[in-house]
Amino acid sequence: MKLNYQNGFFLFGVTVLGIMVSQLDFAEVWSGLRHAGYWFFAIVGLWGFLYLFNTGAWYAIINSQEGHRGNVGFGWLYKLTVSGFALNYATPGGLMGGEPYRIMELSPRIGAARASSSVILYAMTHIFSHFCFWLLSIALYLLTRPIDLGMGLLLTAATLFCALGLWFFLSGYKHGLARRILNLMRHIPLVRRHATTFVERHKEQLDTIDRQIAALHRQNRRTFRLAVALEIACRVCSALEIYFVLLVLMPSADYIACILILAFTSLFANLLFFLPLQLGGREGGFLLSATGLGLTASTGIFVALIIRLRELVWTGIGLALIKIDRKKNIKNRQNCSYME
After folding, report:
1. Residue 277 has pLDDT above 50, yes or no
2. d(Cα 212, Cα 216) in Å, to the nearest integer?
């Protein structure tokens, strides 16, 4: 990636992170950190482990590409994964920040078309696994919790929503998704003109990316299943974060309840994807899910605060990683010449 683009991503992320930090109530933050104690450090460290699942899924996709060339080490890809998620956290719309950064960093190593298809395919798999996790959580709720009429209607609506999402992405895996999404954007008023121009200028490249996505899914079903399994395992293990926070408040914390809190909160927050760091949506989701499972409102607020602080810490780490080993990366790019 050109240095000015790298600096642009870094400065944008730092600016947004600074704005979000300035909105915190520091007295409340300090009180929450004192209450959490060493568990906060366990939560921060946990995500160093969880990002291994995300990196593993993307690494499997890259190495399953037909005609794969280049030197893409797991450690370097881990750094790119963390930085990409940091930009997604800080960017309204999520995929507006991290995915372009990943493509631009990966392109010098494996070519622009392969980089784009692998990043888009990983993003699709990441979102697809969300729908799988939500469906599994609905089944878990039905097996472990009493159901009244209101909850039954809510779970039915959530099941239909997840089924629709799975159908959309499975269709995208078979036929490609890049051009279809951009064609949909041509009907959105604020971005219509730019999307139309982009599609017209890059028709051939978009068709190539879609063909590669369809080919990867068709020819490498084992890789697809592995990537989805890693992503779902990451979701299940990430419930440990909520479990650790609840242990601060109650020794008898229930891990199944933590999974259900995570599932409902992530569903609620992702419906508000246009907010940076899903501000407000994440907190509202924790409050609703915690009280819905019989916990107090103050418990939901405390969980939301600690996890928000963890997200800010890892966003800062990810942004810092954009600038680390810059000279080494430039040297590597010079040594990895390629012809696309």
Report:
1. no
2. 6
| C-alpha of 140 from chain center | 23
pLDDT band at 234 (very low <50, low <70, confident <90, very high): very high
Concatenated DSSP letters for 71-93?
Answer: ---HHHHHHHHHHHHHHHHHSTT
At residue 305, what is the residue type?
A: L
* Residues with Cβ within 8 Å of residue 336, at least 6 apart in sequence: 70, 71, 108, 109
pTM for the model stands at 0.78
CA torsion sign, 235 to 237 to 242 to 243?
A: positive
For 105-148, write each residue's pLDDT tens digit.
Answer: 888 888 887 888 788 888 888 888 999 999 999 999 999 888 88
- The CA distances from residue 315 to 10, 166, 201, 329, in Å, are 11, 29, 34, 21
Two tokens, residue 138 = 């609905």
Q: Which of 206, 154, 145 is nearest to 177 (CA)?
A: 206
Separation between Cα atoms, residue 276 and residue 274, nearest integer Å: 7
Alpha-carbon span 295 to 205, nearest angstrom:
51
C-alpha 55: how far from chain center = 11
What distance in Å separates the CA atoms of residue 186 and residue 207, rounded to the nearest whole number? 17
Whole-angstrom Cα Rg for the chain:
21
Question: Sign of torsion, CA 258 265 131 228?
Answer: negative
- What phi, psi does 295 have (nearest 5°)? -90, 165
Mean of pLDDT values over 217-235: 85
pLDDT at residue 337 greater than cutoff 50: no
